[in-house]
């Protein structure tokens, strides 16, 4: 049975093993550690105590006078599934979880960036209702230099 649970510091080594297999330009373990420390919404997909994938979400609040209002927007920072388990609905499951977390934290919308070359991810995001709202030139490192990102938004 596949479960989604909160990412912990002890998970970072296994997360990094997936990150390094999937990503040509992986994040560092310290980035994941910092995301957990600052309280981002960090999750792992797990089956029989084996981590199959992960997702990270940040949620921002709007300052309103002396009080912080409910979160205005969320940003999916990273989502990854081990290559051996891709195309089995796990990425969709994690995305739906992250979207629900954003809603639970009263976000009005969720943003993310996706590489122009990542057609599978783009298809998933648009199936889930995300729409292109912008483009970031040279956002991602790439083998030949830099690659643009599309900025997508899902508004609730």
Output the keywords.
156 residues, Aminopeptidase, alpha+beta, 4 helices
Provide a short characterization of the protein structure.
The chain is of the alpha+beta class.
Descriptive overview:
With 156 residues, the protein is an alpha+beta fold. It has one domain (2-155): Aminopeptidase (3-Layer(aba) Sandwich). The protein is 28% helix and 46% strand. The chain has four helices and seven strands, in the order E-H-H-E-E-E-H-E-H-E-E. It has helices spanning 12-22, 29-37, 90-104, 119-127; strands at residues 2-6, 41-47, 50-64, 67-81, 109-115, 131-142, 145-155. It has a seven-stranded mixed sheet with strand order 1-2-3-4-5-7-6, with helices on both faces. Helix 3 links the parallel strand 4 and strand 5. The radius of gyration is 16 Å and the shape is globular. The model has no long low-confidence stretch (mean pLDDT 93).
| Strand order, largest beta sheet | 1-2-3-4-5-7-6
Could you name the CATH homologous superfamily?
Gcn5-related N-acetyltransferase (GNAT)
Unreliable stretches, pLDDT < 50, 5 or more residues? none
Average pLDDT for all residues:
93
Q: Count helical runs.
A: 4
**CATH architecture annotation:** 3-Layer(aba) Sandwich
Compute the CA-based radius of gyration. 16 Å
CATH names the topology as: Aminopeptidase
Per DSSP E runs of 2 or more residues, the count of β-strands stands at 7
Question: Secondary-structure element order, as H and E?
Answer: EHHEEEHEHEE
Main sheet properties: 7 strands, mixed
The CATH first-level class comes to Alpha Beta
Indicate the percent of residues in helices.
Answer: 25-40%
What oligomeric state do these chains adopt?
Answer: single chain
Outline type: globular
Q: What is the number of independent domains?
A: 1
Strand fraction: over 45%
Distance between the termini: 30 Å
Specify the structural class: alpha+beta
């Amino acid at each position: 049975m596949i479960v989604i649970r909160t990412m912990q510091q002890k998970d970072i080594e296994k997360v990094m093993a997936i990150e390094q297999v999937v990503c040509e330009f992986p994040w560092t373990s310290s980035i994941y550690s910092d995301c957990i420390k600052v309280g981002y919404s960090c999750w792992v997909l797990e089956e029989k105590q084996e981590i199959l994938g992960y997702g990270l979400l940040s949620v921002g609040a709007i300052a309103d006078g002396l009080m912080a209002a409910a979160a205005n927007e969320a940003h999916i920072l990273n989502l990854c599934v081990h290559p051996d388990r891709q195309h089995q609905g796990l990425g969709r499951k994690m995305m739906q979880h992250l979207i629900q977390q954003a809603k639970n934290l009263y976000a009005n919308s969720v943003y993310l960036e996706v590489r122009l070359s990542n057609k599978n991810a783009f298809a998933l995001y648009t199936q889930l209702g995300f729409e292109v709202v912008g483009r970031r030139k040279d956002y991602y490192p790439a083998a030949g230099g830099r690659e643009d990102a599309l900025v997508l938004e899902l508004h609730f």
